[in-house]
Write a structure and sequence with these properties.
Length: about 160
């Protein structure tokens, strides 16, 4: 009998304007109290863009107009019987005024300063250079231990 992987799909969106990225300080696990980019789980029946637009609106009050898929990472966590497939988008095309939500507080941060921000997520630090600095589509694998920390990180273009 064949064994297929079970996957949860998560979309993340880097919202960028005037050299700044919109960060959210998460109120809930995973990454509770850490700064990262907006995003969340794809719902049943949604396509990736629809999920991205919904998550951006729910967490920021912004209407996403266009987004480019920059890369995909497979995340496997020790002790889980499913993988998490994370899809990373980049957008400079959105409208509205930012507003924090129950998911967390949102704020603009200079892209270069974001790497040094207190409380910035380890995932943000590892993945952001591929989003911001690469013209090529990236894909990779992250192995996560039971404490939610990165054990290994492999990336390809």
């Amino acid at each position: 009998m064949e064994s297929y992987a079970k996957n949860v799909v998560v979309v993340f969106c880097y919202l960028v304007q005037d050299g700044k990225v919109l960060l959210i300080r998460r109120n809930f696990p995973p990454l509770k109290n850490e700064y990262t980019i907006v995003g969340g789980k794809k719902e049943f029946g949604e396509n990736l863009i629809s999920a991205c637009k919904r998550e951006v609106y729910e967490e920021t009050n912004l209407l996403l107009e266009q987004a480019e898929l920059k890369g995909i990472i497979n995340n496997s966590t020790e002790g889980r019987n499913y993988d998490v497939l994370t899809c990373y988008f980049l957008s400079q095309s959105f409208s509205g005024e930012i507003k924090s939500s129950q998911e967390g507080d949102v704020e603009w941060c200079d892209i270069e300063e974001s790497y040094k921000k207190d409380g910035i997520s380890e995932f943000y630090l590892k993945i952001s250079p591929y989003v911001f600095n690469s013209q090529e589509f990236f894909h990779g694998t992250v192995h996560i231990n039971q404490n939610g920390e990165i054990d290994s990180f492999e990336m390809e273009h």
